[in-house]
Amino acid sequence: MPGQQLVCVWQAVHALAPNLDKITSDDLCTITEHFQKLSSCQSFDDNLFNNLTSGGDKIDFYSYQKFIDTSLRDKGVPTSVLYQEIEAHCWKLIEGSYRANILNSKYAKRLWLIVNRLTNENTFPPTVPGDVFMWLVEKVASELKQMWRGEKPVSPMTFTAILSYLEGNIFSKCSLDDVYKCIDALYHWLVEEIIKTGWMYKRTRKQANWTNWTKRWCVLTPRHLVYYDKGKVGASGKRGEMLITTHTVIENLPEYKGMIHKLQDRFKISNIPYLEMELAPADGATIRRGWVSALEELIKCAKLGTTPVQKLLQERYGKSSDASGEAKENGEIKEIVATLDESQVKARKESVRLLGRSNPTESKEAKLSQDLKKVEVSETDGMSKRDEQHDNANMVSEVQEKIKAVFMQIDTDGNGKIDYKEFDCFIKGLGLQMNEREIKLIYESIDKV
Prior knowledge:
It contains 13 helices and 9 strands. It has helices at 7-16, 25-33, 61-72, 79-94, 105-118, 130-143, 159-169, 176-190, 288-304, 308-357, 360-410, 420-429, 436-446; strands at 196-205, 214-220, 224-228, 238-243, 249-252, 256-257, 262-263, 267-271, 275-281.
């Protein structure tokens, strides 16, 4: 599944031994021994690696992941913390193996982390599929406002090849500040998976009483809603967090009218019986829908054991697999059709030869039988077409109703038109990671009036 952090271990093995064509238990054990020094890890028995081999000396990624979770992770340490430490340590081991001409060490690392999320974990050397690479370049070019169009599908790409391509074809044409902003944006989206941010009024209840309303900078990620002090965004300003789990419940609330605060568009997040939190947008009432939609999507992802980014990447990988599978299937179908055509031609020739020898009476009877069959088939086809037309009419009606419902949802002021502000709010409410330029381009392409 794309988005796996432990791909970094495969990257480390390849960077330290670039000539290897497969990853073995010895190579993996050498890298993994370094992790025992990490605070989230415990020591392990080298003999346990013998259980990881499958089909000779080849290592299966998911067997290794299970080993890390069950044999290396220290008790009580969240898996996400363990993976972050491993990923950071892998970069320290291999940082000198990559030569960046434009990016400094910090942003080369961030690009490496981004590529890890896009890498196919079942490959060695670890590579990004060609169509996913082109999707990444399109995102980079769009963020930097550069024109780029892939000429044709490319082969799977290693991190070294991706770094070289981006520096030579995209980054070299832009200012360094813009390049760093672009990498930051992709890093926050694909690595940190920051879904939404904004100023909110919040209060919490752990037992019987609610706390006072306070204004906090809130950051929503797939597993946490983290809030910070006013003007202190960062680790030092962190005031607390709330977990997003399969049991989290979202509830819309009416306007709050107090002595000091009058808050519209409140909503509540509950992890009963542990914690309840009420929130209200501090910079406009129209953004509640975006927060609630994003939270609902995260709860769905938690139940599926995934995240929005992993979901997105799975869809991209699925399209890639479907495309290759469809091409293969089309090739097989064409081959079958060609064989059938050839058989039909031979059958017709043989029929003509045999009919030429048969008596006239048999030919007339055969012709009459064929004519009757044509009439029966014609009647059946007519009934099938009428049924098909009826089904199509029902389908069109259903689709029209769905389109109408979506239109009414977007048209918040009910004037029968969708302006840019409504469209922008709707797109952001879906939790899609699109910048203003991309949203505007889509809106202008749709709005032809």
